[in-house]
Amino acid sequence: MNNSQTNNSQMQDKEILEDVLTSQKAVTGAYNNFANECATPNVRDEFMRILTEEHQIQADVFDTMKQRGWYPTPTAEQQKIQQAKQKFQNANQQ
After folding, report:
1. Of residues 15 and 9, which shows the higher confidence score?
2. 3-class DSSP string for 26-75
3. Does pLDDT of 33 surpass 90?
4. Where is the composition biased (Low complexity) (predicted)?
5. Which of 33, 34, 59, 73 is the one with CA 20 to 30 A from 41?
6. Distance CA 35, CA 29 (A)
7. What sign results for the dihedral spanned by CA atoms 43, 47, 50, 56?
8. Helices (H) and strands (E) in the chain, counts
9. Confidence of residue 2 (pLDDT cuts 50, 70, 90)
10. Do 62 and 21 touch, CB atoms closer than 8 A?
């Protein structure tokens, strides 16, 4: 396989994973809504089980993309982390 074919293959893989990640976000959102609106515990439990599975798929795809450098996640600054913690601690105390 020459360089052009390798680059095309990687681009196709990236596009496929981007599509899968977008789809998984939509699927988990839908199952979350379904679980929130269940009238019976048995049905809610089943939706929650499915939702957990779908979140795991989403996390696996995200991790794969991150490992390949296709979903960069910058490291948070310590000051911003402290600000966020303080904000939520204050909100919980109110």
Report:
1. 15
2. HHHHHHHHHHHCCCCHHHHHHHHHHHHHHHHHHHHHHHHHHHCCCCCCCC
3. yes
4. 78-94
5. 59
6. 10
7. negative
8. 3, 0
9. low
10. yes
Strands (E) in the chain, as ranges, are none
pLDDT at 3: 61
Asked if residue 55 lies in contact with residue 21, where contact means CB atoms within 8 angstroms, the answer is no
To 10 degrees, what angle do helices 41-67 and 3-36 make? Answer: 160
Structure confidence by residue, pLDDT tens digits, 12-21: 999 999 999 9
Look-up: residue for tokens 């839908």? 30
Write out the two tokens for 89: 């601690």
User: Who's near 47: CB < 8 A, 6+ residues apart?
Assistant: 31, 34, 35, 38
- DSSP classification of residue 68: T
20's tokens: 């899968």
